[in-house]
Amino acid sequence: MIDVSVSRRVLWVGGDAYPLGNIARARQFMVVPRRSFAIRRFLRALGSLFALLLAISFVSEAQKNDSVKAVGGWVVIALFALSVYRLVQRLRMKPLYKLIIETSSSSNTAVVSHDSAEVSTLIRLIMDAIDNPQAEFALQVENIHIGDRINQYGDHNTGKMVHS
């Protein structure tokens, strides 16, 4: 959850502040999960598992050892189950909706949510606050962290810095 509010002509999204006068546009962007990528990845995993099964079969035949075939078979079954689980998880992913705040200098993803209506409501509230100097609101909204994002401006940037 993240706090989103407008107070004294400033949009606050968590700890980030955007003066309403600097906001050129607020928009919604839908991120659709790449299901075809998940299927291709699963098919590659199946190919690798088949190759592993053949290798186990050849080794067990060469050594005349059935315990190698049995252990290898269980390993292949476990890896297959893991691959199916990962495929199902990726196929069940819902689309994400980003609230993007555009200023005169840059675009910033402010909120990411599974709820399109929530992002649309935020956009409407922000645009109303830009038009009405007395407007104020405060909401708590779902925000999904989708990984590190590095914005780089100017020369001699250090990139991502991690503080412990």
How would you explain this protein's 3D organization?
- By secondary structure, this protein is an alpha+beta fold.
- It has 3 helices and 7 strands; from the N terminus they run E-E-E-E-H-H-E-E-H-E.
- It has a 4-stranded antiparallel sheet with strand order 3-2-1-7, with helices on one face.
- Helix 1 runs antiparallel to helix 2.
- The model has no long low-confidence stretch (mean pLDDT 84).
Provide a quick synopsis of the model.
The protein is α+β, with helices and mostly antiparallel strands. Helix content is 43%, strand content 26%.
Number of helices, counting only DSSP H or I runs of 4 residues or more:
3
Q: Beta-sheet strand percentage?
A: 25-35%
In total, the number of strands is 7
Shape descriptor: rod-shaped
Share of helix, binned: 40-55%
- Classify the secondary structure makeup into a structural class: alpha+beta
Oligomer: single chain
Order of helices and strands: EEEEHHEEHE
